[in-house]
Amino acid sequence: MSNEDDKVFWDLADAFIQKANDACEDADPGIVSAALLNAAARFNAFVVATSSIDRKEYIDEIESSEKYLTNRYREILRENLEDYRENYKIYVRPDEPDAE
After folding, report:
1. How does pLDDT run across 65-93, given as a tens digit for each residue?
2. Rounded Cα distance, 31 and 28, in Å
3. Could you give the CA distance from residue 17 to residue 23 in angstroms, rounded to a whole number?
4. Cα angle at 43 between 40 and 48, to 5 degrees?
C-alpha cells in the first residue's frame, strides 16, 4: 500500500471502530460485534462478486476467496488479541494490578 492508501485504510478502520463503539451505547457489545462481523462478511462477498468478470468466474473464486479471507481474519484477530494481552492494563483495566 502507498502512504496515501495506508492513511485511508487506517482512517476507515478507525471510523468503523468508532461507529461500533457508539453503537455499544444502545446495544450489547456482543450484538455489535456480531453485526460488524456479518457486515464485513456481506461486504467481502460483494467485493468478490463485483470483482469477477462474470458469474462463472465468481463461482470459481468462491473457495479461494473464502480461504484467503478467513485466514486473513484469523491473522488479524490473533494480532489484535495479542496486542490486548500485552496492553490489557492500558486498554481495559488501567487500575488493575499486574497479573499473568
Report:
1. 999 999 999 999 999 999 999 999 888 87
2. 5
3. 10
4. 120
CA dihedral 16, 19, 21, 22 (to 10 degrees): 180
Q: By the 8 A CB rule, do 28 and 35 touch?
A: no
Calculated CA dihedral for residues 75, 7, 17, 63, nearest 10 degrees: -40
For the entire predicted model, the pTM comes to 0.82
What is the Cα–Cα distance from 75 to 44, expressed in whole angstroms? 17
> Among candidates 32, 78, 70, 33, which has minimal Cα distance to 48?
70
**Best CA proximity match to 16, nearest among 35, 31, 36:** 36
Question: Which residue in the block uniquely carries the three cell numbers 481474519?
Answer: 73
Contact 80, 71 (CB under 8 A): no
Residue type at 46 in one-letter notation: F
